[in-house]
Write a sequence for this structure.
């Protein structure tokens, strides 16, 4: 168990989805490889030109709720985003040690909340592919509140919705701006996932406890005593 976390004082576990529980490789491949390929074929342009267009449009929405909104991208790119996601859904993979962690947390009667910027349509697909849904007491999407996790409004809405104790909660995420927002909201225990994709090297996230995977924050002896 991570030495910085006293699990006897933790009641609620708040978990990000993409990059934290699930391998971010699916999303990176989808947006940076598969969508440009489909877009290039549709518009009869080169893959590199298509990728430049897609990346430019994605970057223009970074940090906004639209960045995560599948309906927005379906309209913006004029593509059937959900069909395309299903085409490569075999790439949706649960990170190593996640199931061990979730099972141990449930055994110890911790509240487990999925707290994600992902769009509900994407969440449904990933829950079906991963089989994770039954582990959560509640699944919260930032689209429910109209604000991404980067905004304090999200956190205010969240605490009003699930009524968690900020001093007795722990939050896991892989995005610096989201981790900073959680810190600003005074969540006491915050952990950064520094290897969100198995295809990328781990990268230290400054200012937070860093872990590569959930084996670093649990041992069965620690969490079950």
């Amino acid at each position: 168990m991570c030495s910085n976390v006293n699990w006897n004082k933790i009641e609620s576990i708040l978990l990000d989805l993409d990059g934290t529980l699930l391998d971010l490789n699916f999303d990176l491949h989808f947006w940076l490889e598969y969508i440009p390929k489909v877009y290039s074929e549709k518009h009869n342009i080169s893959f590199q030109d298509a990728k430049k267009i897609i990346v430019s449009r994605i970057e223009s929405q970074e940090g906004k709720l639209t960045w995560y909104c599948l309906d927005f991208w379906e309209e913006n790119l004029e593509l059937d985003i959900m069909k395309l996601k299903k085409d490569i859904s075999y790439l949706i993979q649960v990170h190593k040690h996640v199931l061990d962690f979730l099972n141990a947390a449930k055994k110890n009667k911790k509240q487990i909340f999925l707290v994600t910027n992902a769009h509900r349509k994407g969440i449904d697909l990933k829950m079906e592919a991963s089989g994770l849904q039954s582990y959560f007491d509640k699944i919260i999407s930032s689209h429910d509140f109209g604000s991404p996790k980067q905004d304090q409004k999200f956190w205010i809405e969240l605490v009003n919705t699930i009524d968690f104790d900020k001093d007795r909660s722990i939050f896991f995420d892989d995005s610096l701006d989201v981790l900073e927002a959680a810190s600003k909201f005074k969540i006491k225990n915050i952990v950064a996932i520094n290897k969100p994709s198995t295809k990328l090297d781990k990268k230290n996230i400054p200012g937070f406890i860093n872990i590569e995977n959930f084996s670093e924050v649990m041992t069965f002896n620690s969490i079950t005593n």
